[in-house]
Design brief:
Blueprint (H helix, E strand, L loop, with lengths): L5 H9 L1 H19 L1 H12 L3 H4 L1 H17 L6 H21 L6 H30 L3 H23 L9 E2 L12 H10 L20 E2 L3 H12 L1 H12 L46 H34 L7 H28 L2 H21 L4 H15 L2 H12 L5 H28 L3 H48 L1
Antiparallel strand pairs: 1-2
């Protein structure tokens, strides 16, 4: 290894099985989160539902992802229970992929997506939490890699689905003719791109008449069965790890590896709190008489991720709508590339930040990232009539914002002594922001026009940066108080030592 020092490399070699398992679980997460947008029109045909009905499937997935993120924190923070939960959730995702082609009613599809969202939320919390506990002060590097695998899965999913998507109307009515009011292939492409984000902008899609009764002609089922097969190695990897850690009944009856050095974080913390205790992380004793700061750190860290993940969701969901509206008036195919460009730049950014996390501290990376986000958003506002700059700005925005979540998670857990409580709060806050800000931005765009999309994202960026400054100030105050307290303790001990 030339990019990482021997200590980091030896840490990875010590925990490579668990690390690769959590990374593969996040690939499964990304695979599941990205398929719904491209396939939603074919799923509408399969369930013979209206566009307004099918877009509620998006909400079902997002809401239960939030619920799953919260439930993931309730799983006992030990390797056996977390791996069992991870095995169940990754297996559920494969089963959902296999079952979706059998859902012939929109309600059944919404239930399937709710179950998938629940599994995704649990994976999100557990994988982040366990990597933080494994690597602690070195977790930033491995968290960046973890979130890279979301992007990888999100890139693979649409590629698998694309060959099986209907190019024309996939429900042929009984009296359908070429001169009927059915939407053209270009209209369907426009609809598919509009829904490629998260399908919350249903106000602008009711103008497209689509058949709900007739013969269904779609081959999208093959895409889901292929994705189910692609995902199967992930629960197999979790099962292999459980066998290696001797957590299965068929494993060797000798002492479990986790009782040794497999998980250094399973040992009691210096403060006496066990990581396995659900409320052990809520002891603010580490903050040396400043319990209010304990809650401030959680609240501000969660608020930053609420804002930044909300920006990611809003930008991905509405950049296409903004591009095809005045004054840009891009073509549907060109504008449809913006969402893919954004997610690709996020994936590349996370890959680059794996190395940058090794060279620079999390506060520096967070400051650089949010300053970059603000700069790009301001330039997008200035050059709002330039289609070329919209593509450039989309690339740079994705690169800058890509590292915020893993860097914030590593930084907050470092301040709170890696007790794990912050992970649950931050993951849940991020999921909430992604869902809520999309709804808010969507309603503002619907009432005030597409230009307000950039304005909302810019204002959110400034709020996020102000919250980061507040977090850094609280961190500085805590370090200063801790230093003063240590000095006072040393001064009290010195006279006693001298008199003995």
């Amino acid at each position: 290894m030339t990019l990482l020092d021997e200590r980091i490399w030896s840490l990875f070699k010590r925990h490579w099985r668990q690390t690769l398992t959590y990374w593969s679980a996040f690939f499964s997460f990304g695979l599941c989160i990205a398929f719904l947008g491209p396939t939603v029109l074919d799923l509408r045909c399969q369930t013979q539902s209206t566009l307004q009905q099918i877009t509620w499937v998006f909400f079902s997935q997002q809401f239960f992802l939030l619920v799953g993120s919260s439930l993931g924190g309730l799983v006992k923070k030990t390797l056996p229970s977390s791996l069992l939960a991870l095995l169940c959730c990754t297996l559920i995702i494969s089963l959902v992929f296999a079952v979706i082609p059998l859902c012939n009613h929109v309600l059944l599809l919404a239930v399937a997506m709710a179950i998938a969202g629940l599994a995704m939320g649990v994976i999100d919390t557990i994988a982040n939490l366990q990597l933080v506990k494994l690597y602690q002060k070195d977790s930033a590097i491995f968290l960046q890699a973890l979130h890279f695998f979301i992007g990888l899965g999100a890139l693979v999913s649409p590629l698998v689905a694309d060959p099986f998507l209907a190019e024309d109307c996939c429900v042929l009515g009984a009296n359908w003719t070429a001169n009927s009011s059915s939407s053209s292939p270009s209209d369907l492409q426009h609809l598919r791109s509009s829904l490629a984000g998260h399908g919350v902008a249903i106000g602008n899609i009711s103008q497209y008449p689509l058949h709900t009764d007739g013969v269904v002609v779609t081959r999208v089922s093959y895409a889901f069965w292929i994705m189910a097969l692609i995902n199967l190695p992930v629960p197999a990897a979790v099962l292999a790890l459980m066998y290696h850690e001797r957590l299965l009944p068929c494993s060797d009856n000798s002492q479990r590896l986790i009782d040794g050095d497999s998980l250094s974080s399973t040992s009691p913390s210096p403060t006496g709190d066990s990581h396995g205790s659900l409320f052990g992380c809520c002891n603010p004793a580490k903050l040396r008489g400043h319990p209010a700061s304990f809650f401030i750190l959680h609240a501000v860290g969660g608020a930053i991720l609420f804002i930044t993940d909300g920006i990611v969701g809003s930008y991905a969901g509405f950049v296409y709508t903004y591009a095809v509206s005045p004054p840009l008036l891009m073509g549907h195919k060109t504008a449809g590339c913006l969402d893919s460009t954004f997610w690709a730049s996020i994936t590349v950014g996370r890959l680059a930040f794996i190395y940058l996390s090794y060279r620079y501290t999390s506060p520096r990376l967070l400051t650089f990232s949010l300053v970059g986000v603000i700069t790009v958003q301001c330039l997008l506002l200035i050059f709002y009539t330039s289609s070329v700059f919209l593509f450039i700005g989309t690339c740079v925005l994705g690169l800058c914002i890509s590292s915020v979540f893993p860097s914030m998670l590593a930084f907050t857990e470092d301040m709170l002594d890696y007790k794990g409580c912050a992970t649950t709060v931050l993951v849940t806050s991020a999921s909430t922001g992604e869902m809520v800000l999309q709804l808010l931005v969507g309603s503002v765009i619907h009432s005030q026009g597409s230009y307000t999309f950039l304005l909302c994202c810019t204002i959110s960026s400034f709020i996020g940066f102000c919250l980061l400054l507040l977090l850094l100030y609280v961190h500085h105050c805590l370090r200063h108080c801790s230093t003063d307290s240590s000095q006072n303790t040393d001064m009290k001990e010195k006279p006693e030592t001298g008199g003995s």
